Amino acid sequence: MMQAAAAFIFIWAGFILSISFFESWVKFRAQGVTVPIALSIGKLVFTALNRIEWAFAIVVSSMLLGPANSGRFFVPAFLAIALVLLIQTAWLLPVLNKRAKKCIHGEAIPPSKHHLYFVVAETIKLSLLFYCGIHLLEQI
User: Fold this and answer.
1) Is residue 126 within 8 Å of residue 13, measured between CB atoms?
2) Smaller CB count within 10 Å for the chain: N or C?
3) Measured between alpha carbons, how far is 119 from 127 in angstroms, rounded to an integer?
4) Is pLDDT above 60 for 19?
5) pLDDT in tens, 57-75
6) Chain segment 78-128, per-residue pLDDT in tens
7) What does the buried/exposed string (b/e) look like for 64-93 if buried means 16 or more CB atoms within 10 Å of the residue's CB?
8) Distance CA 53, CA 49 (A)
């Protein structure tokens, strides 16, 4: 069970790396892709990623927090991951989606630090996922 949980954790981390730290900025460099189109794609992709992350969270927690596993090391780290994911879902993504929608419709939007907060949250979550994955591999 620990091998499968480690695999899910590293796949989850791979999703974050490939979308949040690669796709999100590369699409703005694609020829012919306007900012409104890139923002529209980003809204769709990050909403899908968020849903996939909740699925990963449920699967991994069920594997590691069950009676067959002690999960003592995992509980604080996983709760921190879940808290970051909750903050992103309940606060940051809605704010960023609203800003993107305004920009897509041609409205001027004032500067904001919400994007920076999202990047920091992704970095924290990714670090905790690697911590959990590496710790699981050490247990095997």
Assistant:
1) yes
2) C
3) 12
4) yes
5) 999 998 887 666 655 667 8
6) 899 999 999 999 999 999 999 999 999 999 999 999 999 999 999 999 999
7) beeeeeebeebeeebebbbebbebbeeebb
8) 6
- pTM here? 0.93
Cα–Cα distance measured from residue 100 to residue 129, given in angstroms and rounded to the nearest whole number: 28
In the chain, what are the domain boundaries? 2-139
With tokens 């909750």, the residue in question is 86
Token code pair at residue 131: 């911590």
Instruction: Read off the tokens for 128.
Output: 């905790």
